[in-house]
Structures are given as C-alpha cells and as structure tokens.
Amino acid sequence: MTAITDFQVKTADGGRASLEEYRGKVLLIVNTASKCGFTPQYEGLEALHREYGDRGFEVLAFPCNQFGAQEPGDAAEIANFCSLTYDVTFPVFAKIDVNGAQADPLFERLKSDAPGVLGSKAIKWNFTKFLVNRYGEVVDRYAPTTKPDDIRKDIEKLL
After folding, report:
1. pLDDT, position 1
2. How far apart are the first and last CA of the chain?
3. pLDDT in tens, 78-129
4. How far apart are CA 71 and CA 10, in angstroms?
5. Residues acting as catalytic residues
6. b/e for 84-118, b at 16 or more Cβ within 10 A?
7. 3-class state of residue 153 by DSSP
8. How many other CB atoms are there within 10 angstroms of residue 32's CB atom?
C-alpha cells in the first residue's frame, strides 16, 4: 500500500506538488475554511507548527468550500486571509473537495484509512484533522470540535 507521502496534490498557485518532500515527517492534514466557526483553530494549528516544526512536524491545510460555502475565496484571497489574520506559515494548498465524486484522492485515502464515527467515511465538516506518522501511515482522525492543542500528546508520541 502506498504511503500518504506518495500522493500528488494541487498547490495554491495551480501547480502540482508531491507530498514526498514530507516523507519522514509527522503530518497533521486538515480541511480548512476561512468563514467557519472553527476557523480560529488556525491559531492553534500554527502554534503546533511552530512548536514542533524543527522536530519534523508539518501541518498541511486544504481549503474546502463543501460545508456551508464557508471557503468562497480564490487561492489569493485564502492565502491573504491566512497570512494576515493568523500569521499562518504552514502550507495551504489548493481548494479541493473532500467528499463526493470530485473528492481529492488524498482525502479519499485519509477517509479510508481512518473512518469517522460508526465507520463513516464522509467528512462531516471543516477542520477534520488526520494525523500521519513518519512512515506515511494514518494514525488517527479528529473531529472538527477537537482543538489542535488537544492533539499535542498524540503528536509528541510520534515525534
């Protein structure tokens, strides 16, 4: 089975990037939105990124407009919002779908490897989080209500 780091993803500038550059790192992959009640979690995600980045940890954000149309902006607007409002320094990739026929293959894999409540594969809302170990294996899935700080101990175990 391929590792999460074997996937290609769309970059905010319309290009493609390989997650290979994150091989050997612990990853927290999150579907995000700028106009969501959970949007202040960007602050906690950035805190984790800054605290553990030098130990091999990365947050990877994937904006999504599938939940309440809470990510209506284009890539430039999203980047501007993240930078100016939360001083985000972790990668924010292209806006994608995480559910349905057009769901990004990375999220299809994440959902398959870490189903939600009662085995549900669908992502229920923005700021669902997936923790990936250094081997590119999905370790856990966290609900949007789980604050980034509540994942700290799980990240530390993997580092």
Report:
1. 64
2. 23
3. 999 999 999 999 999 999 999 999 999 999 999 999 988 878 889 999 999 9
4. 16
5. 36
6. eebebebbbbbbbbbbeeebbebbebbbebbeeee
7. helix
8. 28
Asked whether the beta carbons of 129 and 142 are under 8 A apart, the reply is yes
Look at residue 71 and tell me whether its pLDDT is greater than 90. Answer: yes
Select from 46, 56, 63 the least CA-distant residue to 149.
46
What is the pTM for the complete model shown?
Answer: 0.96
Sign of CA dihedral 72, 76, 81, 82: positive
- Residue for token pair 């189903």: 115
Average pLDDT, the chain: 95
- The contacts of residue 3 (CB under 8 Å, 6+ apart) are 23, 135, 136, 137
Tally of CB atoms within 10 A around 123:
24
CB 126: neighbour CB atoms within 10 A?
Answer: 26
